[in-house]
Specification:
- By secondary structure, this protein is an all-alpha fold.
- It has a domain of about 60 residues.
- Helix content is about 55%, strand content about 0%.
- The chain contains 4 helices and no strands.
- The mean pLDDT is about 85.
């Protein structure tokens, strides 16, 4: 999910080193989780499109504001399906994901390519008048 957490009170901690989430669950679990995430993300993107969210003209500001501007002003205006290929290319080649070996290929293909492609496929399905709802709903 493309979630952003804002801490409005209390204290935060800055780590000196990278934070590594070493998830040891199965690929089956991971793809099922991301299938659910893609359904929620599809709903959010359709909602944003219907509401014609205002795009901040000045992309400068916090990192969250810059990423949000990039997503809304650039990424969301790319054609369906092409943006998934572009995002995978950016992560795997330009951000050097290929240096992570086979694990990097698997992760960046599934999370940067397949997951984004699945969201676009569900948006396309909705545009064609078909349901994108999860089976259990």
């Amino acid at each position: 999910m493309d979630e952003h957490i804002v801490v409005s009170e209390g204290q935060t901690q800055t780590f000196e080193n990278d934070f590594v989430d070493e998830n040891l669950r199965s690929l089956h679990w991971w793809t099922a989780k991301h299938n659910d995430f893609s359904t929620r993300e599809t709903r959010e993107r359709i909602k944003e499109e219907e509401e014609h969210m205002e795009i901040q003209e000045d992309p400068l500001g916090s990192q969250t504001e810059r990423k949000r501007w990039w997503k809304m002003a650039v990424y969301m205006n790319l054609p369906l399906f092409w943006r998934a290929f572009g995002y995978f290319f950016y992560r795997y080649f330009l951000r050097l994901g290929f240096l992570d070996g086979k694990e990097g290929l698997i992760f960046h293909f599934l999370q940067g390519g397949w997951h984004q492609f699945l969201i676009d496929a569900k948006i396309y399905e909705q545009e064609k008048g078909q349901s994108y709802k999860a089976e259990e709903e």
